[in-house]
Design a protein that fits this description.
The chain is of the alpha/beta class. Helix content is about 50%, strand content about 15%.
């Protein structure tokens, strides 16, 4: 089955075919780095990280770009509050973003451009838009002329009359029409500024993505992603100005993908409602890999409700996955002999069937929820074989490990084996001492050591093959 994705531009599922065969150009909107990113933003960062992994698995050469917005009104306001420069604020929260993204298992992009490092590209893009008759200069500001662009509204599927009804002119704006948006903003006291053909100033929000995607991916790209809240105005404006700059009559983006809202107790996250949570706060409260599990447990276009109960379920599900891997490793390392009753052909056929179902699920509009269910079917199959046959041949372990590794390369949930298997000498000595105590029937000392290890985050399980251990989530 070929990969099909729901395209927000056409409002239907379409077979994915990149502009250049075998290669995918992929741009995803990154954070505005005036604070820790909120947990709602963690959803697109995680989801589209996994889509990137899937595209690579399908054999595509993927170039993935995710920007940092490091100059805008929020940046300037926060920097003034903290009595630091905008550049210092950006540096601080880009560092913090990278920490949180790593904790959530998000791979770094191929390019992570910053708006302030691409002022020349931004100015060149604006000059092209002006030259092609779709922007105007007004008292040092430059605005996109929406009425000059007949396709405006094609992404958000609204006509100009409806959009105009909700538009307004902010104080200090010098635009002809309420729908027109700033490409370049005239210098104001206390704000960072750069020299331009229209005087000193700074870029508007939308233009940076057009300039940077064009630089790293070309004027026409395969996939552009972000949260559903970005469809209008950000992505609508981005599409209009990018196509106005290129002038090549081709769509700026082939596939627009947007994830659904993350709700907090069935309410849209909002500071005014008091349910706002940063990803940093969520990571400190919950296991970060459980948060990743949770974000992948629903279809990316569906709303997702973030609750303590949902995160507890995610932690339980993650434990089940990791226990399977731990049990598999333990069974492999402690077996003695072989069970000739194991039916390798039947097992491999079942693995093959699950693998096909997994491919079908992710190729059907990237359905990670269905894919996760199949991952659990795999775990159930492996556990059943270990329970039924006890001592198993090399072929079983080779096949089971291969499949677990493949699913995890896509979802990124099983963790780093080296970190999971590393024990300090103190812990190893305690486990050894407890084994001796059990042999000597000193159960009081055995229980004391078990409790001490538990306080250190090490859980023990006594089996006929010996004592297993695992780290507590």
């Amino acid at each position: 089955m070929s990969l099909y994705l729901y395209n927000d531009l056409t409002r239907k599922k379409e077979e994915f075919k990149p502009i250049k065969p075998g290669e995918v150009s992929f741009y995803s909107c990154g954070p505005t780095v005036y604070d820790y990113f909120h947990v709602g933003n963690a959803r697109p960062f995680i989801v589209f990280d996994v889509l990137r992994r899937w595209l690579k698995h399908l054999g595509y050469k993927v170039t993935f770009v995710q920007n940092f917005t490091d100059i805008d009104d929020k940046m300037i306001h926060r920097a003034h509050q903290e009595n630091i420069t905008v550049a210092e604020l950006a540096e601080k929260f880009i560092t913090e973003y990278n920490k949180d993204a790593k904790a959530l298992g998000i791979n770094p992009p191929d390019f992570a451009p910053r708006a302030t490092e691409h002022i020349n590209e931004i100015i060149n893009t604006i000059e092209k838009i002006i030259k092609n008759g779709h922007a105007y200069i007004s008292n040092g500001d430059v605005y996109f002329d929406v009425k000059s662009w007949p396709k405006y509204g094609s992404l958000c599927k609204q006509n100009l009359e409806d959009l105009e009804a909700g538009a307004r002119v902010e104080p200090g704006e010098n635009k002809k029409d309420p729908l027109d948006f700033a490409l370049w903003k005239n210098e104001k006291p206390g704000e960072p500024s750069w020299q331009s053909p229209w005087g000193k100033g700074r870029p508007g929000w939308h233009i940076e993505c057009s300039a940077m995607s064009s630089k790293y991916l070309g004027e026409n790209i395969d996939i552009h992603s972000g949260g559903v809240d970005l469809i209008f105005p950000h992505h609508e404006n981005e599409a209009a100005q990018s196509e106005a700059a290129s002038g090549n009559n081709l769509p700026f983006v082939r596939f627009w993908l947007h994830n659904g809202f993350l709700l907090i107790d069935n309410e849209k996250m909002s500071k005014s409602l008091g349910n706002f949570m940063t990803a940093r706060a969520a990571i400190e409260k919950y296991n970060p890999t459980a948060i990743r599990f949770f974000m992948l447990s629903a279809h990316y276009r569906s709303p997702l409700n973030f609750t303590p109960e949902a995160l507890e379920q995610a932690e339980a599900g993650l434990t089940r996955l990791r226990n399977c891997k731990s049990n598999l490793d333990f069974a492999k390392n402690t077996r003695k002999g072989n069970n000739n009753e194991f039916k390798s052909e039947k097992f491999n056929e079942e693995l093959k069937e699950l693998n096909k179902k997994f491919h079908d699920a992710l190729n059907d509009d990237f359905n990670t929820a269905a894919g996760m269910g199949i991952f659990f079917d795999l775990v159930h199959l492996i556990n059943s074989e270990m329970n039924n046959y006890g001592i198993l041949p090399d072929e079983f372990f080779t096949s089971a490990e291969r499949e677990l590794k493949f699913y995890d390369e896509i979802f990124g949930l099983l963790g780093d084996d080296e970190n999971n298997n590393d024990l300090s000498s103190e812990v190893e000595n305690l486990i050894s001492e407890r084994s001796t105590a059990r042999k000597n029937k000193d159960f009081k000392r055995s229980d004391e050591i078990r409790d001490k290890l538990k306080s250190m985050g090490i859980i023990l399980e006594d089996t006929p093959q010996g004592t297993k251990w695992k780290r507590e989530l």
